[in-house]
Amino acid sequence: MTTDKQQVAAKLRRWKNYLLEFELPTWENIPDIGLYMEQIIVLLKQYLDYLPPDLKEAQFITPSTINNYVRMKVIPEPVKKRYYRIHIAYLIMVLTMKEGIEISLIQKLIPSDLTEDSMRVLYGEYSNLHRKLCHYFVDLVSDAAAPILEHEKRGDITVDSAENLVAFSAIISGFTHLLSEKLLLLESKEIEETEQ
Fold first, then answer.
1. Taking a C-beta distance cutoff of 8 angstroms, is the pair 12, 148 a contact?
2. CB half-sphere exposure, 36, CA atoms < 13 A
3. End-to-end distance of the chain based on CA atoms, in angstroms?
4. What is the pLDDT of residue 190?
5. Pairing with 33, which of 109, 178, 186, 188 sits 20 to 30 Å away (CA)?
6. Largest distance between two CA atoms of the chain
7. Contact at 8 Å (CB) between 108 and 188?
8. How many Å apart are CA 41 and CA 25, to the nearest integer?
9. Ranges of residues in the chain whose predicted pLDDT is under 70
10. The pTM is what?
């Protein structure tokens, strides 16, 4: 996987610029008019446009996935086959977290029976955190990839090739996945001990 350093640097810069501008929709900007499944799929693709151009045709969310989330009580049931703001907010949160933790743990983090007011507050906090972490992650990757991007190194960890950047990303992903799961399992254990 030897890749031209300039090509990798150019892609990293485009991705950095994209993420620095990216925002999840505000609660008020999420439609609350009762959308059908196919409309939800289109909307979520617009809201969560993380994929590089050559992968955009891949289905990251399908009707069967959403139906499974409803069946598993990850998100509330639609109202007469229509999805409202609260459903869309749940889906945005679930889809942005599912690469980091298991769906069963997301269920523990976001109960599917939240009131609309509770979800509005939770979603607002989540979208603010998401934005801050986009910026944090961009800084982390920019620092690590300083030799590729040809700027001054600020941190202790640097990588000098696309291959090493992939390894760096995979290791960070593994650690964050493990931490998320351990914290959620610890919380579940504390709840069980309190109930006993």
1. yes
2. 1
3. 54
4. 61
5. 109
6. 59
7. yes
8. 15
9. 1-3, 50-59, 188-196
10. 0.85
Joined together, the tokens standing for residue 75 give 């998100």
In DSSP notation, the chain reads ----HHHHHHHHHHHHHHHHH--PPPGGGS--S-B-HHHHHHHHHHHT--S-GGGTTS-SS-HHHHHHHHHTTSSPPPBTTBB-HHHHHHHHHHHHHTTTS-HHHHHHHS-TT--HHHHHHHHHHHHHHHHHHHHHHHHHHHHHTHHHHTS---SS----SHHHHHHHHHHHHHHHHHHHHHHHHHHHHHHHHHH-
Bridge partners, residue 79, by sequence: 82
Amino acid occupying residue 115: T
Lookup: tokens for 130? 């998401």
Tokens at residue 144, please?
A: 């690590």
